[in-house]
Design a protein that fits this description.
The protein is of the alpha/beta class and 356 residues long. The chain is built from 15 helices and 13 strands. It comes from Catenovulum adriaticum.
Length: 356
């Protein structure tokens, strides 16, 4: 088979790569279509050795797909030229996160041949929204390397950190973000721990988040801290190496609890001006009432001061919220056997008839 992965954003790659690995081992051909308008060719070429086709926009991608006539094309988001593509290929929709944003479900307004779903509750909800479409629960392919042990984590000592210390992972999203609410010297308050900081890709690439990058530069000066570089595409090595996760509205929270490790939800985030005051409805529309879903995933910190007390408490008592973590994993992440990518490839092979 010939499989194409529509890689609109570089951070889709951790979701695609485990599937690509299985496909390649079975003798299938994979191609990654990447967008110059969204991604740095330098970051791709330095970080990964992949068969890449660069395009400027979705129209150019569409023309390539129609000419290639692949068996399957993966999309991490909605795509506006499906009628032409479905004349020559089948399509897969595969989300890159498992958070509660309404956009997760609305991507399926334009149906693809199949959409692979992670957890049982997500499958139930999306079937109710789109009862005529084809959804198959398989799990969350991104985490396969963690569950199989293929991803062993970072070399802590090589990063200049102390391998005898416990490790905090701070993975803020770009919006709404708690990043700008953290003090400039916060690593100093946690000198007894290693600190790994892995921001969202947009923090590095969008001009709007200049102040966030300034914060990162200040934190990177502390000897107990490693700040991820733009070339650190995958969060998986960071999760494998960490004992606890701090975040706010990132789907990383759901991924981390699937490893049965504690999380702290930072409720002291900053909203863009376009989400504040009279524009608060925009925030509600984008993130929805499903944000209450974070309520029981772990301890919540209403301020940085509260976080200072919460981190040592959670690390000393990792069994807290274990039952909730198990429930969240079943409902949102799905099976944790490391075989999600295998299930996906089995489906592609089973339904690889050349007629879409």
């Amino acid at each position: 088979m010939k499989i194409i992965f529509d890689t609109l954003n570089i951070y889709y790659l951790p979701q695609y790569l485990p599937i690509c690995d299985v496909l390649t081992k079975k003798g299938h051909k994979c191609i990654f279509v990447c967008y110059r308008s969204k991604n740095s060719e330098k970051d791709f070429s330095q970080s990964l050795n992949l068969p890449i086709k660069w395009v400027n926009d979705t129209s150019e991608a569409r023309d390539f797909y129609v000419s290639e006539k692949a068996d399957w094309i993966f999309f991490g988001n909605a795509f506006s030229h499906l009628e032409q593509i479905h004349a020559v290929s089948k399509t897969v929709q595969l989300g890159h996160g498992v958070g509660p944003k309404p956009s997760y479900y609305h991507k399926s307004r334009t149906p693809m041949t199949v959409r692979f779903i992670e957890g049982a509750m997500r499958l139930e909800k999306i079937k109710k929204l789109y009862p005529k479409d084809n959804f198959v629960q398989v799990g969350f392919s991104k985490l396969d390397p963690l569950f199989t042990g293929a991803e062993t984590g970072l070399d802590i000592a090589k990063l200049g950190l102390d391998s005898s210390k416990q490790t905090i992972l701070y993975a803020p999203t770009f919006n709404p973000s708690s990043l700008e609410r953290f003090p400039d010297n916060w690593p100093k308050d946690f000198q007894q721990y290693n600190i790994l900081i892995k921001p969202h890709t947009f923090t590095y690439t969008k001009k709007y988040y200049k102040k966030q990058r300034q914060k990162l530069a200040k934190w990177d000066k502390f000897t107990n801290t490693y700040v991820a570089q733009p070339s650190d595409i995958s969060l998986l090595p960071f999760m494998a190496s960490a004992d606890i996760l701090l975040s706010e509205a990132s789907s990383t929270l759901f991924e981390f609890v699937a490893l049965d490790k504690p999380v702290i939800v930072c409720d002291f985030y900053k909203l863009k001006w376009s989400y504040r005051g009279i524009f608060k409805y925009r925030f509600e529309r984008r993130f929805g009432k499903d944000n209450v879903i974070y309520k029981d995933i772990g301890t919540h910190a209403q301020s940085y001061k509260a976080l200072k007390n919460a981190i040592p408490h959670e690390l000393k008592n990792p069994e807290l919220c274990r039952a909730q973590r198990k429930q969240y994993t079943a409902e949102h992440v799905g099976p944790t056997d490391g075989l999600t990518s295998e299930r996906i490839v089995d489906y592609l092979e089973k339904f690889s008839d050349p007629q879409p």
